[in-house]
From TrEMBL:
The lineage of its organism: Bacteria, Pseudomonadati, Bacteroidota, Flavobacteriia, Flavobacteriales. Belongs to the radical SAM superfamily. 7-carboxy-7-deazaguanine synthase family. Binds 1 S-adenosyl-L-methionine per subunit. Binds 1 [4Fe-4S] cluster. The cluster is coordinated with 3 cysteines and an exchangeable S-adenosyl-L-methionine. Catalyzes the complex heterocyclic radical-mediated conversion of 6-carboxy-5,6,7,8-tetrahydropterin (CPH4) to 7-carboxy-7-deazaguanine (CDG), a step common to the biosynthetic pathways of all 7-deazapurine-containing compounds. This is 7-carboxy-7-deazaguanine synthase.
């Protein structure tokens, strides 16, 4: 396959830069505690300084993989498939979700929402970032809003994003892992004063699983 042919398949979403795939327990948000198969796609230019998977940023480091192989692996393990990154919406997700749906699988995505929404999703977890704000379409369709709290200013940002999502979207505040000791008490106080929000913790890290 020539480089041009490979790039055409990537542009069509038939090849994706696969960083890793694994079966584990969902650790965050609404579906925490449930088994799911994670597909981590490489490539992200949002650039959060506290990102805990910075090795996902450069798509070139991760091999372009046929989505048929990705789907075949996924269906062996779980009915719930979580596509994460990186930023998966940098790529066309329509072909991947189409094949997952054809096999009767539930499709979830974790995204910053900074790019055009592609794919057919049963659940959209929107985790917006200040450096690259989410699109209106993702805000309108998000099932949960998960705002990461690194410092006090992030509460204001969270409220700004909460004002933009649909009325049924579930609202979560989650401490950035390295700041948990400092920020958890503030998040607890904030949620108690503003009960439309819920607390989300990275429970998979407490369980010491991926």
């Amino acid at each position: 396959m020539t480089r041009r042919e490979r790039q055409e398949l990537i542009d069509k979403g038939l090849l994706l830069p696969l960083m890793e795939e694994f079966y584990t327990i969902q650790g965050e948000g609404f579906h925490k505690g449930t088994a799911a198969y994670f597909i981590r796609i490489g490539g992200c230019d949002v650039g959060c300084h506290w990102c805990d998977v910075k090795e996902s940023w450069l798509a070139e480091l991760h091999p372009p993989t046929e989505i048929t192989k990705i789907v075949e692996n996924a269906e062996k393990y779980s009915k719930t498939i979580v596509v994460t990154g990186g930023e998966p919406l940098m790529w066309d997700m329509d072909p991947l979700t189409k094949q997952l749906k054809e096999r009767g699988l539930q499709t979830h995505i974790e995204t910053s929402g900074a790019y055009k929404l592609t794919g057919d999703w049963d659940w959209i977890c929107l985790s917006p970032k200040k450096l690259k704000l989410p699109t209106e379409e993702v805000l309108e369709k998000a099932h949960e809003l998960k705002c990461i709290i690194f410092n006090k200013d992030d509460f204001k940002f969270a409220e700004e994003q909460a004002a933009k999502v649909n009325k049924d979207c579930i609202l979560y505040l989650q401490p950035e892992w390295s700041k948990s000791d400092k920020m958890v008490p503030q998040i607890v106080d904030y949620v108690m004063a503003n009960p439309k929000w819920k607390v989300s913790l990275q429970t998979h890290k407490y369980l010491n699983i991926p």
